[in-house]
């Protein structure tokens, strides 16, 4: 685990100095040419306090809202920094987990221009469910997800085809929301569904009732934790090799699979080998440290199984947020998830007399631990939001910031791979079917 230093002022970005960024495999200070003037203006602000940043953002959000009226919707994920969350709430937008964000276009048909401050796969999910007269935009198209980057279609689809050849219609794909539209379409083609961290047990149990062998993509830890929660035999839950090691499609064989092909044949669920670097820093020792000091420990299920087993509870970002909002005055919560989320939760808890700490932020130097912010989510900073709103108002927003189903943006180069209309229509049909199955399963009475 490494900590990225604060970039110099000339880099055009200012990260929150209170949040450690532990993923340093991708550059943070990247701006499209159209956005650089907004970054330079932001850098000239005297400080980063809400009383300074929010009026500056208002200068661009206000005219955009006046221009688009009620047809404009701002959305953000819980992991975004406080300034953007406050602005989205200030203008009647939605701040939630990935499940609720995916539904924003479909459930708000009067919103024609949707601006998302989160990662690309979340904006793409909104676009898959959107109506033809709605457009979805992302403030930074290079805001990816390290877990999703290790589960691109060129990695997953060749493995899925080998499994389909071996197991036929007995195999179905469950695609975690943290996947691109092409993987969601793969789930749809195999009769599978999308899931989130909040509804994964329901979706996996749905597939089990059909007697299906499940390929769970991409987070191995959420998959394993879901199996544990459902009481599945964990010896029949088999993880594929780490895609960082394979660096591409994996040839399934007795040499590449632990336990050989026979272990796949016995498996009830096969896990893609990806994971989230933010959530794998947690340990049972950290859980025990805070519990011994009277804290209730809650973690996100992208954490390792032994951490989930040690904690007092686990659940999605929405679950964790609700735990803070509903905690009684005097409660003490240690939360294991992304750093910006915990910072925002700590602020809310303080107003309610609830103490919130980050699970990994232990003052004892013997632990050598710290909480992490999501580096790729942090690419959606205030200059990107201000710039996109202003450029949309002027009719000058870059085409790459428009999000269509099936888009793949290279997180380093910014190169865009966009499907043609007919190919996209097929992809949308399958991906939407997988998302709709998730919705039906989740909201069934």
Write the layout of secondary structure elements.
Layout: E1 20-21, H1 36-43, H2 50-68, E2 72-77, H3 82-90, E3 94-96, H4 98-102, H5 104-107, E4 113-117, H6 120-129, E5 135-138, H7 146-149, H8 153-167, E6 171-176, H9 181-189, E7 193-195, H10 200-209, E8 213-217, H11 220-229, E9 237-239, H12 243-246, H13 260-266, E10 269-271, H14 284-291, E11 296-299, H15 305-310, E12 313-314, H16 317-326, E13 332-336, H17 339-351, E14 355-358, E15 372-373, H18 382-394, E16 408-409, E17 416-417, H19 421-443
Parallel strand pairs: 1-15, 2-3, 2-4, 4-5, 6-7, 6-8, 8-10, 9-10, 11-12, 11-13, 13-14
Antiparallel strand pairs: 16-17
Helix pairs in contact: 1-18, 2-3, 2-18, 9-19, 16-17
Structure in words:
With 445 residues, the protein is of the alpha/beta class. It has 3 domains: 31-143 and 377-409, NadA-like (Rossmann fold), CATH 3.40.50.10800; 148-277 and 435-443, Rossmann fold (3-Layer(aba) Sandwich), CATH 3.40.50.10800; 279-373, NadA-like (Rossmann fold, 3-Layer(aba) Sandwich), CATH 3.40.50. It has 19 helices and 17 strands. It has helices at 36-43, 50-68, 82-90, 98-102, 104-107, 120-129, 146-149, 153-167, 181-189, 200-209, 220-229, 243-246, 260-266, 284-291, 305-310, 317-326, 339-351, 382-394, 421-443; strands at residues 20-21, 72-77, 94-96, 113-117, 135-138, 171-176, 193-195, 213-217, 237-239, 269-271, 296-299, 313-314, 332-336, 355-358, 372-373, 408-409, 416-417. The strands form 5 sheets. Strands 7-6-8-10-9 form a 5-stranded parallel beta sheet, with helices on both faces. A hairpin with a 6-residue loop joins strand 16 and strand 17 (416-417). Helix 2 (50-68) packs parallel to helix 18 (382-394), helix 9 crosses helix 19 and helix 16 runs parallel beside helix 17. Residues 1-15 and 23-28 have low confidence and may be disordered.
């Amino acid at each position: 685990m490494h900590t990225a230093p604060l970039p110099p002022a000339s880099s055009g970005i200012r990260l929150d100095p209170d949040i450690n960024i532990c993923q340093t495999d991708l550059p943070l200070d990247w701006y499209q040419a159209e956005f650089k003037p907004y970054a330079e203006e932001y850098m000239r602000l005297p400080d980063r306090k809400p009383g300074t940043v929010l009026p500056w953002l208002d200068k661009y959000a206000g005219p955009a809202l006046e221009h688009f009226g009620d047809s404009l919707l701002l959305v953000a994920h819980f992991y975004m920094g406080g300034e953007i969350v406050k602005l989205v709430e200030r203008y009647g937008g939605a701040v939630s987990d990935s499940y609720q964000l995916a539904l924003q276009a479909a459930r708000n048909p009067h919103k024609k221009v949707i601006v998302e401050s989160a990662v690309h796969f979340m904006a793409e999910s909104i676009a898959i469910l959107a109506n033809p007269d709605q457009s979805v935009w992302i403030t930074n198209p290079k805001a990816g997800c390290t877990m999703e980057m290790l589960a691109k279609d060129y990695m997953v689809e060749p493995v899925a085809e080998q499994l389909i050849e071996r197991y036929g219609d007995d195999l179905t794909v469950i695609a975690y929301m943290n996947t691109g539209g092409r993987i969601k379409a793969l789930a749809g083609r195999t009769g599978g569904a999308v899931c989130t961290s909040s509804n994964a047990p329901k979706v996996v149990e749905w597939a089990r009732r059909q007697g299906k062998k499940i390929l769970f993509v991409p987070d191995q830890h959420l998959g394993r934790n879901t199996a544990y929660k459902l009481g599945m035999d964990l010896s029949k839950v088999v993880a594929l090799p780490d895609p960082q090691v394979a660096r591409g499609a994996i040839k399934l064989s007795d040499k590449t699979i632990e336990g050989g092909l026979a272990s796949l044949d016995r498996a009830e669920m096969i896990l893609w080998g990806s994971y989230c670097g933010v959530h794998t820093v947690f340990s049972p020792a950290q859980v025990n440290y805070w519990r011994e000091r009277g804290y209730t420990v809650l973690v996100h299920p992208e954490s390792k199984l032994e951490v989930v087993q040690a904690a007092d509870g686990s659940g999605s970002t929405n679950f964790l947020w609700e735990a803070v909002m509903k905690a009684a005055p005097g409660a003490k919560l240690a939360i294991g998830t992304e750093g910006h989320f915990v910072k925002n939760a700590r602020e809310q808890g303080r107003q309610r007399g609830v103490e919130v700490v980050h699970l990994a932020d232990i003052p004892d130097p013997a632990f050598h631990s710290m909480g992490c912010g999501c580096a790729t989510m942090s690419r959606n900073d205030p200059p990107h939001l201000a710039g996109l709103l202003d450029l949309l108002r002027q009719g000058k927003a870059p085409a790459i910031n428009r999000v269509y189903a099936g888009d793949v943006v290279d997180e380093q180069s910014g190169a865009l791979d966009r499907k043609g209309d007919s190919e996209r229509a097929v992809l949308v049909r399958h991906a939407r079917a997988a998302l709709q199955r998730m919705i039906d399963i989740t909201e069934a009475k």
